[in-house]
Amino acid sequence: MATFENILVIGMGNVLMRDEGIGVRAVEELDARYRLPDNVRVIDGGTTGMELFEPMRHADCLIIADAVNADVPPGTLVRIANEEIRAFFQTKLSNHQLGLSDLLALLAFKGETPRHVAIIGMVPHVLENKLGLSAPAAEGLDEMVGMLVTELEKVGAGVTARDEVKSGHWRRQAELEAAESCA
Amino acid sequence: MAKRITVDPITRIEGHLRIDVEVDNGRVTKAWSSGQMWRGIEKILVGRDPREAWSYTQRFCGVCTTVHAIVSVRAVENALQLEIPVNAQLIRNIIQTAHAIQDHIVHFYHLSAVDWVDVTSALKANPVTTAKLAESLSDWPLNGPHEMKAVQERLKTFVGSGQLGPFASGFWGHPAMKLPPDVNLLAVAHYMQALDVQNLANKIVAILGGKSPHIQNVAVGGVSNSISHDAPSVLNIERLLLVKTFIDKLDQFVKSTYLTDVPAVGAFYLDWTKYGAGVTNYLSVPDCPQDTKGTVFDLPGGYIDGGDIKTYKPITTFNDAYFRDGVAESSKHAWYVGDKALHPWQGETEPQYTDFQDNGKYSWVKAPTFYGKRCEVGPLADVHIGLAAGNKLYAKYLNQAIGTLKAVGKLSDVPLVALQSTIGRHAARAVRCAVMMDTLKDQWQKLVDNIGKDQTTFNAPSFPKGEIKGVGFHQAPRGTLSHWVVIDNGKIKNYQAVVPSTWNAGPRDANGQIGPYESALMNNPIADPEKPLEVLRTVHSFDPCIACAIHMFDNEQQPIVKVKAL
Fold first, then answer.
1. Which residues of B touch A72 (CB under 8 A)?
2. B367: domain CATH number?
3. How high is the ipTM of this complex?
4. Is the dihedral angle over the CA atoms A84, A85, A86, A88 positive or is it negative?
5. Contact across the interface for B44 and A130, Cβ inside 8 Å
6. pLDDT digit string (tens) for B23-41?
7. Would you list the DSSP string of A8-62?
8. Residue B545 annotated in active site
9. Cis amide leading into B9 (omega within 30)
10. What tens digit of pLDDT does each residue of B430-479 get?
11. What is the residue range of A14's domain?
12. B288 counts as catalytic
């Protein structure tokens, strides 16, 4: 098995739009539940673009958790890796903002594509301006975290469960919001 | 025969901005700018602690995280009339200025250059003559023939791999592409170098902001950085000197490369000084506060009517009533209930979707006005305000850019009105970036000087009983950004963000006046309706940023341009 020196796990998405933020929530859970090897770095990428380019350049293995648009029902979990990822733009338009596909394309142009790239994604159920995940997405969260763990194992980075699970920032915020709306 | 062209999305992520134009005899005769996503994100803030609002507002947008954080705390501080320490002002100023520099560099080289640069043509360039041209224009050290040759080889490999990557989106060979191969290669070389350089600005933000992406150091009342001369975990001289090395490298790129490339490219597109003027009313807010109250600023703000700098009216403090009382937003042509223009403190965000109606409601973006006028915000506005206010930096760098334009284009005279155009908007952004560079150096020096006598960074806020209101503003990279907050018994009661792209991308207003994008598109030439490169050029010149707040990886391919005979 190939070994990797710098494994970068990025959670992408907007936590203020429920399931859109699934990627951020998934990497937060990954970090909360598991002790990760020293060569694994986890970033909450939010919806940013260029800020992530430099960390990506230094990674030889890149794992992205994100909400994805795909022609499958909401809640479906998908894994898209290496050749399957279109490291080019889908459109004939030049653009304004730099999304994930643009960053991957820039890496390719620079000749700095990580040796292994995988996207672990979930098709969102609900996109509305609230913090918490929808019930089906919350249910799928465990499996998504599991897919991240499997991916890490695949690249030689075994994780160990923490004795005590931490509570991530956005999980706490979502729980607070839910508690207030019930009250 | 007249045709209707719909470009959706106009930005590459998701369908957030849609542009429709009607074209007759090869010219745009009507235009509609439509935000395709509901932006009611402020509602999340209602009922929350105002001291935490910034950590949510910086998630509004994927590009401008930092600016939304800073403006949020300014709004709450304004409501409290809370003074903040000078060190906190300066640290925020350094962060926001570094952010602006990164944003401008990335916009020109990585987001919009492909509208003007034919990348495939760079393969036909001669690296030796390209280097000669580059070295005649500036003293940037990475302009030599070996550098140009290496970039061309890299490009060849890349194109040969069958993946055009970031360049696949261009309209290669489009009749509106005018640069000779050598200039195209020069632009591609600087595109690659800019990828390295922009990160230096990001590092400055990360060092002072504590984390990247998403800064952690702002607080209502100041910043959470503690200052010490030598303690390792806080802001000390060693870290500030590191910041200075990044500033110096950025400075060289911005002054010798960015500020040169835009007029050098622009010299081949002089036609584009005639298109894209837009509404020509300019609004900018003062920024880089120097005192605890926000009454002295390094960057001027104000309003200019009809493109005439003699009409300049200044905005001078964080409490300026001229700004505070002049802003309103209309939903008459936006998918919200109501048609009267409302002040942001009274702002409502009740959705009322109707489908796209040419003469009715057609956008999720509201239409802001300043005393009833549509305004352009952003670098073109900032340069006008800077000149009107007698700011020496704006005059200096505008003259430098004009000098390059004259030399490359062999022109004897360039009137100010040439700036009021699609290509002029890019020039204004390069000029502003150079001004930001000097401002950044200045804020850094002032911080270093000030911490010798004062280490305060935070004044604790306390919230009164009853209702208070505040507005915070910032001269953001895309223009005037303001957050409006109403606080009742220490909890947020109403929150509205009037963002730069709302000013520029808004639909028709309560009186039927068209917005800045729409106005700038009028009369643009369209060579090929199936490939409306000209529409993209004009809209992209504003640095559109409607794609706030959502970011999904799209694995499906959608048609983007639709053309319909009328």
1. none
2. 1.10.645.10
3. 0.87
4. negative
5. yes
6. 999 999 999 998 877 666 7
7. EEEEES-GGGGGGGHHHHHHHHHHHHEE--TTEEEEEEET--GGGHHHHHT-SEE
8. yes
9. yes
10. 999 999 999 999 999 999 999 989 999 999 999 999 999 999 999 999 99
11. 7-182
12. no
